[in-house]
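Problem 12. The chain below contains 169 residues. Write out its predicted structure in token notation.
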Amino acid sequence: MKYIKIGKIINTHGIKGELKISSCSDFDAERYQKGNTVYIAYSEKYLPFQVQSFRTHQGYSLVSFQNALNINDVEQYKGCMIYMDAADRKPLGNGQYYRDQLLGLKAVDEEGNEIGKVSAVEETCPGQRHLRVQREGKNDALIPYIPFFIKRVDLEQKCIVIHVEEGLL
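Solution.
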């Protein structure tokens, strides 16, 4: 089974077993639907949990699990990463990509000159995504993830073509 990280448990919330999760998924409501199975990485194992409830609060996902509806049942998972089974991921439309698909891609300009490698997909403000591109011997570059700058993503060639404007890099 291949696991995909969807968040980090940063704390408990209340006494009824809710966990406060810092998400790295764009589809929290889908990921944490009641009855879905997610996995908590704990003691070098992936422990399966079925979702009991999901809601958002102050920008965080609050999730509880069946058979773990008490703070004492979940407190030990603070700081753990939470994953999903890659087989449960639904295909996206043409031209859409999951964050993990973009990580590690070689970033090149429209002439094919290498800029660096995509090391992260970051949300700098609500609704504004950027690609963090690590450049050898230089500071990282933040490239707005919008069609004006992102000209082509080629997953087979592990490459992303970026339109470079003056001041971007």
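Discussion. The chain is about 5% helix and 50% strand. Students who got a different answer should revisit the alignment rule from Section 12.3.
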